[in-house]
């Protein structure tokens, strides 16, 4: 699946999965003196859950979209089940009930990821397990136990992707929380772990605040598009791209004409007391929040939505930025007519569908990029 993860915060973030087959919106967005674009809401669609109540978990690492754009998977912590929503019908299709203990037991669920063959991965700090959901019973296929293996102790449990045959899992590794180092590849067949460091990926540690075992730090996004893994963060206007075939990484830095390009760093990274930690945490600048980039397969372009302070001014701007297929910045606009949180969404037919909780029910809010 195409999984992105950003911590849910009270401002705009853009965290989507790309899905589309319709060529009617294939006209690329281009920058010109005559073209101005906006992003606005065009529809709201309520999801039919029948007699059930869909569990709206704020932790997006426990949700996933299918690559064909047909299904949304949502872990229900109260029932220890995965809710399967038909995105085309906007309807709850079924629930996959899991076992917590025993031979097929999942243990705690910190992250889920589905591939296109009905297999899914459940990840926590102790293990990675691959299950088959094609039959009536959920069956454990593969297991990697992390206990007593130091090399697995620093894997991220927030995001990653299982390949289509269920044998490979891609994710991140870190020195410690808030200090990512590079990409990991777990091979379930030969029980091996591959690590590839990414230069400068750890730069976000300059925004981390710590005291004893407590820490706050910016989130990363992780998205696999074809043979490339895209990594970005909330604090710096940049992108890291790792090519799985070439085994090479590239670092892109961008400049906005509308906003600042880097968040102001906190006054101190290491607090001397709990009181100082709380003070630094509450007073730290949040003058830039850059969302992750997401691919639109119809236009062959990437979108990113961010919220940041304007250049040489105190006003904040919600900004939609468009990039080409080679990650070159094409255009940006601050005409964003949407007041909600773009936190968990997918792209279909050139439109963005974001999932929202409306009166304790799941709904899709549909947004469209339009020339004005």
Structure in words:
- It is a single chain.
- By secondary structure, the chain is mainly beta.
- The protein has a single domain, classed as Neuraminidase (6 Propeller).
- The protein is 3% helix and 45% strand.
- The chain is built from 1 helix and 29 strands.
- It has one helix at residues 274-283, and strands spanning 16-18, 37-46, 63-65, 71-76, 81-86, 91-97, 111-114, 119-123, 127-132, 139-145, 161-162, 168-176, 179-187, 192-197, 209-211, 214-216, 220-225, 228-233, 238-243, 248-253, 288-290, 294-296, 301-309, 316-323, 329-333, 336-337, 345-348, 351-358, 361-371.
- It has a 6-stranded mixed beta sheet, with no helix packed on it. Strands 21, 22, 23, 24 and 25 form a 5-stranded antiparallel beta sheet that branches.
- A hairpin with a 2-residue loop joins β28 (351-358) and β29.
- The two termini are 34 Å apart.
DSSP summary: helix tally: 1
Query: What share of the residues does DSSP label as strand, in percent?
Result: 35-45%
Shape: globular
**CATH fold group:** Neuraminidase
Count all strands and give the number. 29
| CATH architectural type | 6 Propeller
Biggest beta sheet attributes: 6 strands, mixed
Provide the number of structural domains.
Answer: 1
Rg on CA atoms, Å: 20 Å
Give, in order, the helices and strands.
EEEEEEEEEEEEEEEEEEEEHEEEEEEEEE
Q: Work out the helicity level.
A: under 10%
| Spans of at least 5 consecutive residues with low confidence | 5-13, 20-26
Oligomer: single chain
């Amino acid at each position: 699946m195409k999984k992105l993860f950003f911590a849910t915060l009270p401002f705009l973030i853009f965290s989507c999965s790309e899905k589309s087959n319709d060529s009617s919106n294939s006209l690329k967005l281009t920058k010109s003196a005559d073209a101005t674009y906006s992003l606005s809401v065009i529809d709201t669609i309520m999801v039919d859950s029948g007699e059930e109540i869909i569990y709206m978990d704020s932790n997006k690492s426990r949700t996933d979209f299918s690559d064909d754009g047909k299904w949304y998977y949502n872990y229900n912590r109260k029932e220890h089940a995965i809710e399967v929503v038909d995105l085309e019908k906007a309807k709850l299709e079924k629930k996959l009930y899991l076992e917590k203990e025993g031979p097929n037991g999942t243990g705690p669920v910190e992250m889920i990821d589905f591939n296109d063959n009905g297999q899914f991965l459940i990840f926590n700090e102790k293990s990675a397990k691959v299950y088959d959901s094609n039959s009536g019973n959920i069956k454990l296929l593969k297991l990697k136990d992390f206990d007593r293996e130091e090399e697995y102790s620093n894997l991220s449990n927030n995001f990653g992707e299982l390949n289509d045959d269920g044998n490979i899992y891609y994710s991140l590794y870190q020195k410690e929380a808030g200090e990512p180092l590079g990409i990991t590849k777990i091979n379930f067949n030969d029980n091996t772990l591959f690590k590839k460091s990414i230069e400068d990926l750890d730069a976000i540690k300059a925004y981390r605040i710590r005291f004893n075992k407590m820490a706050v730090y910016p989130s990363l996004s992780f998205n696999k598009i074809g043979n490339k893994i895209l990594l970005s963060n909330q604090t710096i206007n940049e992108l890291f791209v790792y090519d799985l075939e070439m085994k090479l990484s590239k670092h892109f830095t961008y400049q906005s004409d509308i906003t600042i390009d880097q968040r102001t760093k906190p006054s101190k990274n290491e607090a001397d007391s709990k009181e100082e930690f709380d003070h630094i945490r509450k007073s730290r600048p949040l003058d830039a929040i850059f969302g992750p980039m997401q691919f639109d397969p119809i236009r062959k372009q990437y979108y990113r939505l961010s919220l940041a302070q304007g250049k040489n001014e105190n006003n904040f701007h919600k900004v939609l930025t468009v990039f080409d297929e080679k990650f070159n910045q094409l255009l940006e606009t601050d005409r964003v007519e949407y007041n909600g949180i773009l936190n968990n969404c997918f792209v279909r037919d050139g439109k963005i569908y974001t999932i929202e909780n409306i009166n304790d029910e799941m709904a899709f809010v549909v947004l469209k990029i339009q020339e004005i």
